[in-house]
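TODO from last week: model Nitric oxide reductase subunit C.
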Amino acid sequence: MENSKKYLLLLTLLVSVFSIYNFTIYTSKSDYGTIHLSKKAINGENIWLKNNCNSCHQLYGLGGYLGPDLTNIYSTKGKGEVYIKAFIESGVKAMPKFDLSEKEKDDLVQFLKEADQTGYYPNIDANIKPNGWVSIKYKNQNYENK
Ligand code: HEC
């Protein structure tokens, strides 16, 4: 076979492999499941955003850094609903108090509760396997790597 045909064949092969690769990557579904917040929690998320809780607090490490991360505040021993509400109602040194209705506070707590159920932060049990994959601790079976 003459050289130019060889190059053409090689180019066709590379373009095909590249196309298949892209098709596979962009059409395969992720293993992370879908997060479905309840209506109450979505309402709570809006209250969270409207009151700028995220300007001082983080979820999964993202947010402002004046206050602590609240990803797992709901399930932390000794904290939880009453504790969260107490902070909202009275504030502390650097945290202002928020004048929210009972329903708004309930929704906000529901948001933090459902956010908490999605995982752990920081994920201290993360483990780098010899093959390079990282295995982390999951809370919800939907997010388990298969
Ligand atoms: C101006 C910054 C600021 C804003 C805005 C803010 N916080 Fe805070 N928050 C803090 C700081 C700082 C602390 C830590 C206070 C301390 O322990 O002395 C804190 C503590 C907390 C705690 C206790 C955390 C723990 O681990 O013990 C909760 C719960 C909390 N905030 C909820 C909220 C919610 C909900 C909102 C929104 C409605 C909010 N905060 C808005 C600054 C803020």
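Done. The mean pLDDT is 91.
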